[in-house]
Write a structure and sequence with these properties.
single chain; 300 residues; alpha+beta; 3-stranded mixed beta sheet; 21% strand
Amino acid sequence: MSPTWSCTPAIGNTLGFISPRQAIRAVWNVQPWHTRHSTEETRNFVADKLRVVLQGGQVDSSSPPSIDDDRVQSINSAAIRHFIHAFRRHAVTNQIALTHPYIPVVSHSSIFPLYNPAALDILVFWEIPSQGRSGHLLVSGLNLGAIHAPLKEIIEEAEGAKVKRNMYAETERERKDILQAVRNCEWNAEMDPVTVAVKEGFVVEHDFSKGSLFPPSYTGRLTHRLQLEPCENSTLHVALLISKPGSYALNSWRVQSEVGELSSRSVEFDAHGWRARHRYEQGPPTGDHASVTVKAISES
């Protein structure tokens, strides 16, 4: 259940029977809704309200933008829908109070929506026929997708502002705590949007008496550049120059990614209307042992 993500089982459409003290693993495909609810309005609402908080002002009582409730809760039973709503409201209220202790509880509903646009809740139904028991369990608190510190400018603006009377903080330390809480909150998350998977484990047989596995002219490009849209993927094929048998580690790659936005309204953007917000770099994870094995063969 999500305002943004649609989930379908990758294999089959049921978890099946689980024996006592056993576990089962399910794999799901997650894709944006075809008629995806715009997340921009909700994120802008939260950003505007938190800007007021960081400036020490009074937050108005306006409510967050509504979302398509049928997508979030595709459950026909009114009793279960009530349970889901009550459970999530309780969980969100506790999390906000823990994360933002200096913001009055009475203002929470006017700042933070019940659902983050990236939220994904999982409702699991279970049944024990032999005992005549059944029930359900809600797994909440999952946010999918990469965002790139959308509150960065608001935080920097507040840090550079002159100290004035603040209705949320009585001391400079409390003011810094509020800034840090906003910087670390889920609405300002920051992450590298690119995931790299190296396809490895191949075993190649080659007659080295005829020369290297690949002649030097076919080693290919060492640097690849491309642009990816959200949820898009691309496969890069590279060639290795291997002169003798053995196992060769595939752990010398580096991926640099840049995320930003297109606009022509600000001098901060380049001639193409692009402004980079963040740059990331990643390599093989610690303990990665991806490799390719080359075996020598000879003519019979």
